[in-house]
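Quiz preparation item.
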């Protein structure tokens, strides 16, 4: 799968995902699952939804160095 998630996008997804995961854990709700799903593309560096809609937040320089 092509890497299409940039550094800033990954960082934001991780922070928001961890926050949602923590809220889900504290309140014992399914929101934790939503947080985990949000963090998955950040960890992998690739988002299939971005592929479908043609979005790429990764800078060209990042793509050359990491692929």
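Solution:
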């Amino acid at each position: 799968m092509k890497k299409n998630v940039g550094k800033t996008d990954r960082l934001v997804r991780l922070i928001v995902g961890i926050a949602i995961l923590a809220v889900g854990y504290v309140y014992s709700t399914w929101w934790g699952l939503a947080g985990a799903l949000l963090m998955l593309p950040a960890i992998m560096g690739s988002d299939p939804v971005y592929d479908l809609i043609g979005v790429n937040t990764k800078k060209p320089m990042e793509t050359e160095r990491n692929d």
